[in-house]
Amino acid sequence: MTQTTATPSKGRSQAAKTPAPRKATVPAPKKSTTTSSGAPSQAASKNPRAKPVTPKPVAKQAATAPAKPLKDKKVKVVRDSFTIPKTELLQIADMKKRALGLGVEIKKSELIRAGLQALLGLTDVSFKKALSSVPTIKTGRPAKD
Question: pTM for the complete prediction?
Answer without folding.
Answer: 0.45
